[in-house]
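Quick one: sequence plus zinc ion SMILES, need structure tokens.
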Amino acid sequence: MASSDEARGRPRTGLKEGGVKRAHPLHLTLFGPPGSGKGTQANYLVEHFGIPQVSTGDLFRGEIKTATELGQRVKGYLDRGDLVPDEITLDLVRRRLEQPDCAKGVLFDGFPRTVAQARELDRMLRQAGRRMDHVLFVRVPEETLVSRMAGRLTCPTCSRTYHPELAPPENDLVCDNDGTPLVQREDDRPETARRRIKVYMDQTLPVLEHYRGQGVVSDIDGVGTIEEVRDRILQAIENGGDPPHAPRGSEEGART
Ligand SMILES: [Zn+2]
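Reply:
Sure thing.
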């Protein structure tokens, strides 16, 4: 625990200004169930802190594009609907972290997905003299998630999601990134949405528990406007995570 206490006491100045001069690189992971608005907040954080977003989905797609032997293997797993083995995923992440644009830090997205991946990432960061600084968990009650998802629109090209009220595209019904017409996914229907939320939570809670032990997790109330949630996230990054080993069993529903 000593190292975690020491880390928590380290200066956190310079976080308020965007683009930001920081004394240390910043490593963030953002967790939030489907419909939590995590993607929108991730886009903001990347811009605000001037750090790249590292998502395993992007890494897989990038590797497939290069048409390497590894890319072929990745494509095989994805085409079969299988999980890409940790060994490959972690190797891609390791190589990504060596890129110069990661020098200021990274926002991880959709990773780590398992405790085994989290442990390996800890080791990788430690070897580079770094660490996971903040893990942000955006919490939203299930009913709110389901009704948000019912209105959601997705870009079939880049998977970015929009919502007519909460996160509208700049131009009606086309993606800001690539102009593709947006669609409502089958996945976003209420029954499917509930199942996806459950799968997400079952998968994510053990990983959160892993990071709670390090005192780097902040629970973010995800109900409110994009700006309100964004401010809570920035505040949490500035203040650091909840104390290590926070009591268990409080994962469902909003925090009081
Ligand atoms: Zn798009």
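The radius of gyration is 18 Å. Confidence is low (pLDDT under 50) at residues 1-18, 246-256.
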